[in-house]
DNA sequence: ATGGTGGTCATACCA
């Protein structure tokens, strides 16, 4: 029995409940971290998820915007929320699980998109994004408590050249500007995190997790970006079996513009 | 250079 975690920016969990249930039925992750749920906790559709076998949920939602939720087949031994930038935006929830004696902190993160203008002096949303990135620098993979960690979510940045369809054309586009990509890689390094999607797909290969709604034909033009990420503490790397980018979900009925990303781990006792 | 498509909540605002 492997351990599988998935992350998906769902762009309204209530509107897209049918494809959430389809994904859970077909891929059966142990944990699913959702972003942009756009749903206050009191209105979160728990019952159908419980019926699908996901009995545990850690919710941090608000009306209309943002919102994260971590749903699980395994119980949580602890949950926590972090506020970023002194705001009450719902952009983070931490849930700790125990899997075969190994405790794992799972951070579910939704980073600010940042608007269109790339000058933080002119665009407060981009300034907010940069401050969020700065605060992500003090988000360690090793908390010093002996637990492993995973950090997943929509970070709204495609850090590497082949995380976008055209590096050259995207350098002036929010999500791939040099300040964002260097800050994100800086936060990753400062926290001691490993970008595990890129341990299985080499940086020379294109890899996308998001395709705009605005394209006439998203699959034909294939102008994607890798905005969704799975980071781990280095101690989990020996157990990493494979990753899955569920590209097919972009073609499902009433799709999100993001697709689920997954990591599959061998059971620690098997190695 | 522009607008292209979605979501929320009922109007602009956000992605």
Mean pLDDT: 97
* SSE string: EHEHEEEEEHEHHEHEHEEEE
Helix content: 10-25%
The neighbouring-strand order within the major sheet is 3-4-2-1-14-13
Rg over C-alpha atoms, rounded to the nearest angstrom: 17 Å
Beta-strand residue fraction: 25-35%
Distance between the termini: 13 Å
- Would you tell me the structural class of the helices and strands? alpha+beta
Summed up:
This protein is of the alpha+beta class and 271 residues long. It has helices at residues 17-27, 46-51, 124-136, 167-170, 178-191, 197-200, 218-221; strands at 3-9, 31-35, 56-60, 68-72, 78-80, 92-99, 102-110, 148-154, 194-195, 210-211, 224-225, 228-232, 240-245, 261-265. 21% of the residues lie in helices and 26% in strands.
Write the layout of secondary structure elements.
Blueprint: E1 3-9, H1 17-27, E2 31-35, H2 46-51, E3 56-60, E4 68-72, E5 78-80, E6 92-99, E7 102-110, H3 124-136, E8 148-154, H4 167-170, H5 178-191, E9 194-195, H6 197-200, E10 210-211, H7 218-221, E11 224-225, E12 228-232, E13 240-245, E14 261-265
Parallel strand pairs: 1-2, 7-8
Antiparallel strand pairs: 1-14, 2-4, 3-4, 5-6, 6-7, 8-12, 9-12, 10-11, 13-14
Helix pairs in contact: 3-5
This protein binds one DNA strand of 15 nucleotides through loops.
